[in-house]
Amino acid sequence: xxxxxxxxxxxxxxxLAAWAASGEFTFVVGEVTVVKAGGQRITPAKGTPVxxxxxxxxxxNGMAQLTMVDQARLSLRPSTQFLIEQYPETKEGAGSAVLxxxxxxxxxxxxxxxxxxxxxxxxxxxxxTVGIRGSxxxxxxxxxxxxxxxxRQGNAEESLTVNHTIEGSHAVSNIVPGAAPxxxxxxxxAETLITGPGQTVLVAGGRPPRYIPTPSFIADVATxxxxxxxxxxxxxxxxxxxxxxxxxxxxxALQQTTVSNAGNNPTIxxxxxxxxxxxxxxxxxxxxxxxAAGGAAFIGQAAGGDVTLAGGNFAGYRAYAGSGSGIxxxxxxGTLRDATSVVVDGQAISLGRWENASLGFFGxxxxxxxxxxxxWVMAPxxxxxxxxxxxxxxxxxxxxASTSPTNQxxxxxxxxxxxxxxxxxxxxxxxxxxxxxxxxxxxPAGSWQLNADSIPLALNTFFGSTGDRVVITNxxxxxxxxxxxxTGSFEGSLVGIGLSGAVLGYGISDRTASNAAQWxxxxxxxxxxxxxxxxxxxxxxxxxxxxxxxxxxxxxxYGTTDRPDExxxxxxxxxxxxxxxxxxxxxxxxxxxxxxxxxxxxxDPETGMVWGRWGNGVAQVARAGSTDQVFLNNGASLHYIFAxxxxxxxxxxxxxxxxxxxIGSTSPTDIxxxxxxxxxxxxxAxxxxxxxDASVNIGINGQTWTGxxxxxxxxxxxxxxxYSGTPIAGLPNPNPLTxxxxxxxxxxxxxxxxGFFTGRTGQRxxxxxxxxxxxxxxxxxxxxx
Length: 785
What we know:
This protein is mostly beta strands. It contains three helices and 59 strands. The radius of gyration is 31 Å and the shape is elongated.
């Protein structure tokens, strides 16, 4: 409301003419005629008023600009017919503005009416309506053979409409003959696409609107609508931002918008999505489950209904489909020990151990006897999924419950002390455990201290081993730093809404004794309680291509979740720095553009999603004093796609299906510097089944590549992925990526799809693809908004 009052006051104070009509001509060039509502024909000049019912006709050499009572500017190209159906006669006047483009080309920069109430300003043609959600567009209407060849369809008699957004956004809908207003698309009504700067939409006949590359004749119009003298202030020019699907950035210097940055984010372009209403509960109702046995531990996830119980206690689970692991751990037989449950921040955590039981990972019949005990701990999964990666500050977690640590002979000991501290700012975990076991038979008493510093956090989970940052010391003074016979690891997660708890399993292997009969393999599980964190911390989800080919062939991209200030943008919404993993530098290294350039870019004004690629230089990647270079001056490219800033997780619809259309993309590239084209891309979501189907077709270096994946499981309402082949040895790949190529792909072509949903209900989606080393990014918008 304050913005509207400010706008009204500014316009009221401006030295406007005493309008007696809806507007006036501010310049006229060549043949221009006004046909009044009563049929009278006049030749306008600068200052001639225009009224409701006037039809303006420009000849083959005619152009004109109108300035309306609310300071909207309407520019007409040659061979255009334009009708003012409705328009108030004063800037505060009641009523709506309805502009009808009968044929030709109209460029519009809207004024006060659309700023104060955008629903009151509408443009239309024979086949489409354009709702104003912003300030600038180019509208083109034609019939059959009169249409420009670049947009002409198969039916030469069809009426076409093209709308190109320059600034703000627009809602483009098809007019369906015979359909009543307000009838949903699925019932035969109109369909709507929302456009952002640089996006172009085509409506042919009564068919639904679709995104198209910006035709050159539209870009030419955007560059110089009037071709007036440079000194004429009526020739206010604006360059087309051809962001989708071609994504060739071209903005005239005089029209580049200066924006105020808040945390490196240009707020005028990229809004924060408020999804805090999604924080009530985890829609997936997942459980984090840690199983520790035989001196090792691993973590998995399952929906509450997919957990198997024996006598009311945990005995296995079917892995959450979104994880794509396909495993079904099962514990059979044995004697239950140490079963207990604790409540942390109102959420129950259960744990226990099974003595002399069997453990299998692929359901009934897959188990083998495990020496000692199988320990387990189960808790509600951490929510939101990404939270640990975007919080700041530190938190200490204290031991709430544990199982008795046991060795391979089921000698039960004590977890004498345990402490867990989290540095959210650094995205790391420190852990300290002190384990003791009594003597039994020929096995002497023992004690072990496990300490870990700066263990990385990823999606609320953590893992450490003596192969990296874990140090174990036994009671005789032996250290894993110097003795390879003393090893161990742990795995766990931060759990519950707001991460107020933690669970972990650990294993220690001590083979330092000269007598093998005295070797010990110790296992245990524990639960912790800590302070509740703010679940509404803002974040930006993203995907980044592997420009230097450091990752496995079937991956070639990095997933990252950033704090908003870690994604740096310039005034045009181009990404110049971000945080993401890098193979040689670990997680959340800082990428900066260095001497490279943003050679393509685009953004979605509705959600703030941005995409593009760097090239033509050397980018820098730095972490903890180490710096690597990403060489892009040999033609290679680094692609990126980041969701906008969002507070709260995505909550997809619970049922139904949706089709997503391409709203932007980067041109595919390979590591050798070839640049290709995105021929097509599709994405469809089945919300009932929580799956995604996607396909990509590209042309590059004389080859056509296709990739398709069906029934990709959606993980935690936000993420989906598919890989070719069987990337993880010993595990199934139930939903693989299928790759094809003509004329010849060669042997063993590998690749991946890696994507995410964004927006409060998943209105947008981002995808990074790799097809045989050819990489690119695609931005999708859900049909219907």
